[in-house]
């Protein structure tokens, strides 16, 4: 069943390689590397680091960068856990004693920087090029500057008010203001943004690689990594963090490394879906798809009231299990086998009332019954309604190459959440904002523990071959937009551009992943292009519907590349809701 959706951009097609990323300059960087003979990993890392330069409001070279890679020759599908850990000095007790049981904004939310390690690990293990080759496009943009688009200007104007201390915002951060808010005025649209400190950081890392070139490509890349986490840059990060009152130490950096882990895997009607593990929210997409597999979505009709209601209720169930079970598996026994069981999903599906919305977040299920093992009996308290912003940061990049390799990554951590490190040009990861100060919560704050991350790249495969890398920014909307885009393609026969541009809906009936974990029981948002009759029908079922703009960035910024497994043709799509573009040949 193919549904036709009018699009405002052409479907990008190719046969050799394809990139789709959250900013057009990042897509251009990936395409440049592919044309130079690099593989999908080389190109994906080049694009990812470029995103760190051109989307400073959303990403950082010292932020987070979870990655999914399929390497065709090695027949490996792996994840790189580009997520930092809490410093050893951090604890719930520390925040209770020193900050009144609150998690202050800014430097105290710093966890170990992870993106740099993730990028370097990816090219070292699965790439073919040097660090200098893949970082050069980003370095050139940082050094020479680029005219900022309206999207960045709006972010700077919004964040700028906070950064200069207005409206009760965070402390004024001179190191940030001098780059992005010179003379206490945010840069205007079309102004050229130059980031000399960030360019200099890249140049220092290149010099380390060149100094170690005689050791071979992989050892030279390792030397770059060691310089960042053990050498001068590490010391500069720690000095800056501690000067600002943060907790990061050289020991924290020395002990840190990203993990190379098997992905979480599920399936929907013969299509396998891969995500990162329960240290992020990725498996919630798999859970929602498993729940929805038992419904006749085609008969309901695309974006009908029945369809949207069913999708949102399935997502609520998945987010409930996310709240009650997901956390860093190094610290928490997460029942992944049970959570991703089709039998468990079928059981959860029976709780969906086709005519009535659940009033709030549903109760967590019992995945332990679907795997060996017993619950430890500890569960966080059912949340109370809490006011707060619906945070939405992050970006995304996907790449396919001529050899069948796929790259999918979701970098994050923007400049509004922490000060730019003086002389380095990037913020240190503020992802501690996604921890809970509740000892019974699976994502509670503990020394050395990873927060539960919202960024979550995905990859669809069929018969052991890549079908589609896909993902989006958007905080808690990520899984929701990813599930809807996936269904648009697999259930309704849309091409990637149609699937991405189709109007979307989202539920917010769960505790937000960002502190203070805003909870809005029953809240649903729909884009203005959803039929008004459908909106009223949803309200009659108990959904508290807000109608957002027709094309709102709050619904994310999807990118996807679909492979025709018979012909090898590549189809790239990118979201006009943000600055993403696809390019290929």
What can you tell me about this protein's structure?
The structure is a single chain. This protein is of the alpha+beta class and 585 residues long. It has helices spanning 24-35, 40-54, 92-99, 115-126, 131-144, 150-163, 174-180, 196-211, 217-229, 232-243, 250-255, 283-292, 297-300, 305-325, 336-339, 342-349, 478-490, 496-501, 532-540; strands spanning 12-14, 18-21, 67-71, 76-80, 146-147, 192-193, 260-261, 264-268, 271-275, 397-400, 406-409, 458-462, 465-471, 505-507, 523-527, 544-548, 559-563, 570-574, 581-584. It has a 7-stranded antiparallel sheet.
List low-confidence stretches.
Answer: 162-171
Q: What is the number of helical segments per DSSP (H or I, 4+ residues)? A: 19
Helix content: 25-40%
Number of E-type strands: 19
CA-atom Rg in angstroms:
22 Å
* Secondary structure category: alpha+beta
Tell me about the largest β-sheet: 7 strands, antiparallel
CATH fold assignment of the largest domain: Glutamine Phosphoribosylpyrophosphate, subunit 1, domain 1
In whole angstroms, the N-to-C terminal distance is 28 Å
Percent strand equals 5-15%
What's the domain count? 3
The CATH superfamily label of the largest domain reads Gamma-glutamyltranspeptidase, small (S) subunit
Shape: globular
Largest sheet, spatial ordering of strands: 1-18-17-13-12-9-8
Assign the CATH architecture of the largest domain: 4-Layer Sandwich
Oligomer: single chain
CATH class of the largest domain: Alpha Beta
Mean pLDDT: 94
